[in-house]
Each structure stands twice: as C-alpha cells, then as structure tokens.
Amino acid sequence: MLRTILPLSLLLGAPMIASAQQNIYMLEYPISIATGDLHDFINNPSFRGFNFGYRNMVDVNRAVGIDIGWQTFFEKKELATYYDGTAALTGVQYRYTNAFTASLQVDQVFCDGKDIRPFIGIGAGTAYFRRTLDMGLYRLEKDPWQFLVQPEAGVSLYLANGNALILSGNYYWGFETKQLDAQSYMALSIAFAFGD
Amino acid sequence: MRNQKTLLGSLLVASALFSGCYPEVPDYIDEYDMTYTDHSPSFDFQAANTYALPDSVVIVTGNLANGELPEMVAPAYGDQILGRIRSNLNALGWTEVDNPAVADVVVLASAVKTENVDVYYSYGGYYGWYYPYGGYGWYYPGYYPTYTSYTTGSLIIQMNVPSDVSPTQNVPVVWLSVFNGLLEGSNASIITRANTGIDQAFKQSPYLQQ
User: Which residues of A touch B41 (CB under 8 A)?
Assistant: First the structure.
C-alpha cells in the first residue's frame, strides 16, 4: 500500500533538494492563473500543467539552470453572440491556450546551511503559445513564439536524503508579437527536487 | 535511484492524466450549431416593409444546366422552415405580399449539404425559375460572407431588393443569414435545430425591426 501511496503523494508535490549538491532536478506541479490578454481570453485557472527544472549550484548561494514547462488553459463559453462590424455570430465557444515555455534561470538562494532556504530568481527564454478558438464547426488558431521573461520566488524545505520540497511563485510573461498580444500568467507551484 | 524512477514514471502518468491540449470538446450535436448574419449598412430597412417569400426551400447541389429546375427540400420540412421565417418577419412588423415584383424585399431560403459551396456565386441560376427576371446574378453590396465553404449542412436565408437591379443585372443582397451545423440525428431534430437557428438569426438582427 505504501508503495502505491508514495508515488501518488509525490505527484502532488512531495519533495527534495540538497544544500551540498551540485546538480538539482525539479519536477513541478503548477496551478496557474491567466493575466492580461490571456485572462481576457480564458479566465479559468488552470490545473493542467507540468514543469521540469534543472539547477547547477555555481556557489553556495547562486544557481543557474533551465526551466521547461507546459500549461493548458481552457474555458467553455456558453451560447453567446459576438459582433464584428455588421456581422454577428452566435454559438458555443471552446477556448484553449497551450503554453510551452523554456527559459534559462538564475537564482539567488539565501540562508546557506539552513533547512529552509528562500530564493529569488529571474530567467529569459521563449514561449510557444497555441491559442485555439473552436466555434461551431470552425477553428481559429494562433500559435506565436514569444520572447519570455520569468521571474520567480520561493522557498525550499529540506527533507532528507538530499531531497527537498520547493514552493514557488512564477510569473510568465511572453512579449507581444504581430500575431498575438503579450501572453502572461502566474503560477503557484509545488516541486519535488533531488540532487545527484 | 529506484525511487526516482518510480517518481518519474508517476509524474509522467500524472502529466498524461492532468494535462491535455484540448481537455474538453462539445458533447452534444447542437453545440456545433452556429448562426451567422450580416447586412448592408447602407440599406434602410425601416424604409422597406413588404416582403415576398417563395413556397419552397432550394437545395443547392451544384451548377444547373440552363433551364433545369433546382431540387427542393421536401415540403414537409420546407414548409416548417418557411413558416418559421414568415412568423419571425411578421413579428418584426413586415407585411407579406404575393407578388415579388411589388415587394420591397424578396426573402430566399436554401439549404446546402455539400462542401466548398461559394455563397456569392451559387445563386445566380437557382432562382431564375422563380423570378420573371431570370438570369440575373446576385451580389453583395460592399461586403462578403466571411467564409465560403460548408462542410456539413447550412440553411441560408437572404434578403434581396428586386427593384435595385444593377447595370450588370445583379440584384443586391442586403441581409444574409447562415445557420450551420452537423447533419446528424432525425429529420425532426434537424428541423428543430434549424428553427432555433432561424429564430436566432432574426434575434441578432434588431435592425430588421419595423
């Protein structure tokens, strides 16, 4: 039974990190809230997502690495009429946005040697947003690549055996492109971290 | 290491369970229904108050040979569609007349169940049988539908002004409605959905009110 429960608990965020370890791997479950133009399109929070992170401790207080993530936003708009000039269109809409992100991150970690270590960080990279609007039998789709900035802040809670639980808040900001306005969302995440 | 592999496997399963690019899709056929309308901003609908309505709904099947009559929707269903159009127009204050030549507008209904039918080019010949000025084409005065193909079924209603024939023998279409959806279910259920679409077309066109 324990062998069954343990992996499930890890899914929901179980834990690790090692203060003395050079390489740290993070498996993260984020809950995200759309902001800005993305919020105008979909205002439901997203519980569908997954992130992977890697950090190398370049010294006791500083880490560099990468974050790779995927988040799916969805909202069903009940029957409504939409106007465009002299035209009007009535139907049920299914709205989706899939965000795929990848960024290089730099973190400043505080309280060396403690079990609880807060950190702040910043990163930059790219995001691929696939915005889909299904209405009736028709689909409108935009899928720009946007320059991504990702600030983050959080705290790591040391557990045992080099493992840690990380709670963090991340903000994903994709810059406006010709195809689509800036897409952004905020994520609250719980991560399981372990080192080699 | 074994625990880490277990963890990774669990997370992969979790990501498959909790993530999905398109987590929900329509459950019911009528969720695919869509009603589109457009109109000419330069036409004064309040200055027109009589309409003529043909007694059949044309099925658009493709190009017709010269003199060939178009196929019609069976009267059992066509009459329901035309009745719904009539009741909506009457409720908006329009008055029906029998003679299309004296009507301010002529309202035409047609059904499409083939792909890649272009609304703009499809009507020139179809109504030649109905009007004394057969052979005229149809055109949209300064605007066009935003889509031109229909992958399933569509009911198209257009309002034309027979008195405003252009030098090139075209008759303007001042109002257009397209109800589009899946042709699934019984004929009765399809007609029910079509009637809902007809009601919606007039509801979202308040400028038709007299």
Answer: 86
Query: Does the structural domain A14-195 have CATH classification 3.40.50.80?
Result: no
First to last CA, chain B: 78
Q: What ipTM describes this predicted complex? A: 0.72
**CB atoms A50 and B8 under 8 Å:** no
Which of left, alpha, beta for B145 (phi over 0: left; psi -120 to 50: alpha)?
A: beta
- Output DSSP code: residue B151: S
Closest-CA residue of B relative to A70 is B19
Whether pLDDT at B175 is above 90: yes
pLDDT one-digit tens code per residue, A150-177 = 999 999 999 988 899 999 999 999 999 9
Does the beta-carbon distance from B35 to A91 stay under 8 Å?
yes
State whether residue A116 is helix, strand or coil.
strand
Which overall architecture, per CATH, does domain B26-208 show? 2-Layer Sandwich (3.30)
Which sequence spans correspond to the domains of chain A? 14-195
Q: Which of A16, A46, A86 to mutate to test the interface with B (most CBs of B within 10 A)?
A: A86
The one-character DSSP state at B135 is: T
- State the smallest CA–CA distance between residue A5 and chain B in angstroms: 11
pLDDT tens per residue across span B82-110: 999 999 999 999 999 999 889 999 999 99
Q: Give the residue among B6, B8, B127 at the shortest CA–CA distance from B60.
A: B127
